[in-house]
Every structure is written in structure tokens, then in C-alpha cells.
Amino acid sequence: MTKGFKASKAGIVLTIMIFLFTMLLSACGSSSKPNAAATGTPAATATETAAPSAAANTPASLPEVKLTWYFVGPWPQPEQDQVFAEVNKVIKAKINATVDFKPLAWGDYDQKMKVVIASGEPYDIAFTANWINNYSQNVGKGAFLPLDDLLAKYAPQSFANVPKSFWDATKVKGKIYGFVNQQISARTPSIGIPKDLADQYNFDINTLAGKINGFTFGNLVEPIVKKVIKDYPQKYIGMSMDQIADAFNFEPIVGFHTPGVVAYSDDSLKVVNQFETDEVKAFVATLRDWNAKGYMNSKERISSKTDDPGACKAGKCMIGMGGTYKPGNEQIGLAQNGYLSVDAPANIAHLTTSGITATMMAINRNSKNPERAMMLLELMNTDKDLYNLLNFGIKDKHYKIDADGFMVPGDDQKEYNPYVPWMFASNYLANVEKGMPKTIWEDTKKINESAIPSKLLGFTFDAEPVKAEIGKTNAVYDEYHRAIDLGVASEAKYNEFVAKLKAAGSDKIIAEMQKQIDAWKITK
Amino acid sequence: MSKKTLPQMIIHFVFILFSLACIIPLVSIISISLSNETDIIKNGYSLFPRVFDINAYAYVLYEPIQIINAFKVSIIVSILGTFISLIVMACIAYTLSRHDYRFKNPLSFYVFFTMMFNGGLVPTYILLSNYLHLKNTIWVLILPYVAVPWFILLLRTFMQKIPYDIIESCMMDGASEFRIFFQIILPLAKPGLATVALFTILQYWNDWFLSLLYIEKESLVPLQYMLYRMMSNIAFLTSSSNQLPPGLNNAVIPSESARMAMAILAAGPMLAVFPFFQQYFVRGLTVGAVKG
Questions:
Q1: By CA distance, what is B130's nearest residue in A?
Q2: What does the H/E/C string look like for A470-497?
Q3: Where is the ABC transmembrane type-1 domain (chain B) (predicted)?
Q4: What does pTM read for this prediction?
């Protein structure tokens, strides 16, 4: 008995000690935070004092620094170290810095960046976007440095090159936290058909260009589908709600899977549930009709959750929609699918916040050399050779330039081919690939400029308060979308889907969106 | 024994079903890895390859240096890790099993407590990377799993079953504590140690999480992480292709059969190791159940 008592006393003492120790630790933790902030500010002020001389900076006058750069992509590439070494030679010569490249794989990036950011690691630059390493959440956490002053001082060219509306789109509470890598930001899906089919049926895809939305879709596309399916009943029609989403006449706030959209034409910015709009209903009715007519090959396709990405390679694709239309699409499709298709924009392109915040670089709040990090970004965005080196590898080894000035694969292309040109800097600097129009970047720029800006441009939704509901509604979407996409779901089933979304909290999400949009409208 | 009653047949049936549920996925993975890719796309999976094709292995092993290196890392980590971990855990477990040790209960509690509460992901990351500077070293793959409380308690229970009289008589013969531990206790605890060793080696072999967090150097990437990275890349690209910026090259996705070939290569060595432990395994597994 006494022994047991003794033991438990020891246990109590131990527990108390552990708790004390934890408290001590957490105290250390919290005290280190202001510290970090404190060290952050002197660095920033130091920047400002150093600024006047920066304009006339030569590499010799800059002290040598080491920068750390996190980014994502299909890494690792076999010869990446070789390429990074080459890149570093140039960077060293120009701004007297060496970059510790931290390329991470797609699947790892989110998780890894969360711990890296939470631990306060003093990295310098990281890729951030609305779809990975979430920009607005990180800004909310205070992970990134506001860039307004740095941009003006150290990256005047890039700052001027990017349209003001783009910078506005990245602003959170009036400050820029993301350095925009320009690419095609105006979004409309591309609609494409394999070239041999188009030739065989004498079909011009451009007749559909810019006309497709949820209402017109059925009438416009059915004639060609009807002809092809008669001869090739096994071919897929790649048109799901997901894929056509960007052609609908409304802007999804979080993504098409999550309830909550605002019509492009709506000045009052009223958030509605897209699955209850007439447009989506009309689209779904078309799919249902097509399935009844036997176009969808649904018996075979319903057995798997997604169509096999290799199916197109196996020649099973007929007509498809998806991705984003941009000049040079055909060439990229050829590389991806192994056959040539002819593409056209499905609808008029819209410029949305998510199209712009899709590719950005951010500078860490704890960065020891934020001014140098910004200089690096400016360098990447102005030095075409450096950018292409990082992008496509070493010239005449990983890629070649042919007599006409187009880029063709080099002998060792598979040793270094990350193919994420929008990752490192403005896509406009990239070598033009063979098969792409020579004016591809001017064309892209034009599309970006001529696109209709969304009325929500600059608004970013903070999903945190309704995270659970978004998860639940996405689960509902996952459960039903395949049947709906293949036209198998009856109207009753579709209504059940909408009802389940409601039960999962779609109204709460929409209310939250409306609340944030209303608040944003006032500050604007 | 030979009487085949109905209940017995039902039991057999249930276990046959269970075995099938375990075996069929494995067989189909092997089959897919040996199948022709276009055949899979056209006709779906089958239990036996319709068109026999070892291209997938040729593809995976095309650049063998990376895979061989990953194998090397995995093997070093598994063997070294299991060895260190067994020694450390056996020491703690033995100490805890001795009822004449004064701080037995507080120490047990200390071990047990970490099972319930731990530092959490971020503090652990800060500790390992910023204070211990273990990032990008092979030790970061080994040290975090050296002392697993659950295995310590398992070993302790096992060692408690060894009669104290044996230890006492050794002491009378003048054996030192170390001698008792290494020459008497460890051999007697062999079944328990073997069980824990199997668990530990599996844990080290199958771990990818530590390398995800702490390894950035390609030369230190273990096999499972390579596999995980490949799989998660594919999952990421297929699930969120709609949100990605345009122009992403999907051509990087390895074929279905190559993925399965990779899985077989990663799982293979463990299938070979398992039988060696099996004789101890059943005996060892029951140690937690019956306390002596």
C-alpha cells in the first residue's frame, strides 16, 4: 500500500515536472517569436538605408549571400544539380549570391512548406499560389513579407512589366505579398478534337470558339459527337462539369467543387449555389440526354472513378474540354497525349483573381536578405538566358534552338525537363517551342489584356471559417459527380445531390462568402 | 481431428476468404507489373498477365543508380536502426522489468507518458532541424524511432516473465549486472526481441514520413520515400489538374505497370525477411497477452 502511494507520488511529481517543462518550453517558444520579428525589422530598416546605393550596385559592392529557394514541380530531375550549378554561376556573377535550390515534388510541397513555415526557418523565397502552399492562408499567418517597397526599389522592371490589375489581385489588406509570375491568367477552357477526326469529318473547331456555355453546349457540340460516335462507339467524350466549369457564366469562389459562385454579369455580387443555377442544370440535362442516346459509353466508364489518363494515348478520346485555352495549346497537347489535336477557346476569357494568383513567389518574413531575394526575382524576370537555363536546362544538351529560332528537345532532354515554365519567373521569357506560334507570348499577353476582368478581381476568400463544410461538400461532390458527368444520374438523383450539399453546409459556405465579399466591397 | 463438422467448415471458409483477400491484391500487383501497358488500358486488370511484358521493370531500372542508392539507404537505415533500437529498448525494458529497481514506476510512467502525449509535428521539426541539426543526415532516419514506447512495454512484459530466481542465482555466482543482461537475459528474451526486431525493421523499412520532412539530399532518399513521392505526385496531378496552372506536362506520369513494378521492388525484400522471424513470431506475439 505504502509502496503504491510512494509510486503515485513520484508520478505526480513527474507529471508536474513535465508540465512545468512544457510551460518553460512554450514560454521559450513564444518569446522567440517577438525576437524573430525584432530581427526582422532591423533587417528591413537596414534594407532601406542600403537602398540608395542599391541602384548603382555592382556585384563587387554587394556582400556575398546565400539564398534559399523552395519551389515545386516534377522533381527530382536526374541532372538538376548540374543545371543548378550553372544557374548559380550566373547569379553569382550578377548579384554575388548563391542559391540553395530546394526543389520539392508535387505531393510533398504542401506538407513540407507547412512545417518549414511553422518552424520559422529562415528560407528566402517560396512558390505560393491559390492551389498549393496556399497564398492567402500563409499571408494570414504572417508568413510572408509585404513586397511593395522592395518591388519598387529592387525590381522596378518586373514591377512595371506586370499590369497593375495583376498586382491588385495579389493584395491582401492593401499590401502585395506575392510576386506574380506572368502566364496565361485569363481563363477559359479549351475545346479540342484530335486532328485526324477533325479532318475525317471536315469539322472546324473554330466554329465553336467563344460560344460555349452551359446553355449552348448541347446544340453546338452534338452534331459532331453524333457523327463520330456512329463510327467509333468506344471513343470518350471528355466533358465533365469540372472540365467545362470555366466556361460557365459565373466565377467559382473556391473552386467548382465547392458551392458558391458569382455571375460575371452580376454587379451586386450575389453569391449563389452553382448547382442550383439554370445553366448547370441545363448542362447536366444535356449530359443525361446524351447518355440516353448512347454517346457516353457510360457502362464501361462508370466502373472507374476517373478516366484513365492514358486513355487518350490509346486513341480513345474524341472531343474534350478542359484546362485553359492558350496559344500554343496544340503543341503541349501533342507532348502530353502523343497526338495532335486542334483547339479553340470555349468561351470568352475572364480574368479572375485565381488566374493571377496561380503562380507567385513570396519572400519569407524571416528572410535574412529580403532585398537580395527580390533582386534575384528581378534577375530571373529580366535575364532571358538565365531563366531559360533554369527552365529547360543547358543549351545544346537538354534543348536546342533550331535554324528558325524555335526550341527543340536536346539529346539529354529527359535528364532535365521539369516543364514548369511559370514556376521560376514570367512565362513570357520562355523559349518558343517548335510548333508554337512565334508570337505566342504577345498573343498570350493580348488575351490577358483583352479578357474581361472579373468584378471580384482582388478578392480572395479566406476558407478557414468554413473549412469543415467545404470538406463535407467536396465529399458529396466526389460521391455524385461521376454519375452526373456520365449522364447516368437521373433528375431525381441530381436533386438528391443538391439536397445533400445543403445538408453538408452549402448554405453556410455561401453565407460566409457573401459576408466576406460584402466586407471586401466596402474597403475597395 | 478428421471429423469435418459444419462449424469447422465455416471457419475454414472464412479463413480461405480472408487469405484470398490478402493474396489477390498482391498477385494482381505482380500481374500488372508484368503486363503490357496498352493491354491494361484497353482491357483492364487481370490476375494473370494477358500480354507478358517486362518493359515496366526495364523502365524502372533504366536508371539503376538512383534505385540502387535508395535501396542502399533503406538497407543501412533498417539494419543499423534495428540494431541500435533493439539495444536501447532492451536496456530500458530490462531495467523496467527488475522489480528491485527503485525508480521503476516513475520511469515506466515516463515511457508510457510519451505514448499519450508528444511534442507534435512542428516542435519536433524545430528540435530536429534547428537544434540537433539532423536534417539531411542519415541519423534523422534512425534516431526518431530508436525508442518506441509500445515496444519497450512489450519487451518489459516479456522480460518480467523470466524468473527473478535466475538473476538472483547469477548474482550469487558473482556475475556482474552487465554479464547477467548480455549473457543470461538477452538469450532468454530472444523470442520477444525477435518479434520487436521484426516490427522495428518493418517500421524503418516502410517509413517515408521522416524522409519527407528531413531529407532534401537526393543521395539520402530511401526507397519507400521514392515510391511515395512517385505515387503522391500522380495522385496530386490527377486530383487537382483542374486548378493547376496550364501547361503542366502530364507526360511525366509513369505508366500503371511501372508503378506496380516499383511497388514490388519496394516490398520484395521484406517478403524475404519475414520467414526468418516467423518461428519466433507467434511465440513473441502472445507475450503482451499473458502476463507472467
A1: A121
A2: HHHHHHHHHHHHHHHHCCCCCHHHHHHH
A3: 71-277
A4: 0.76
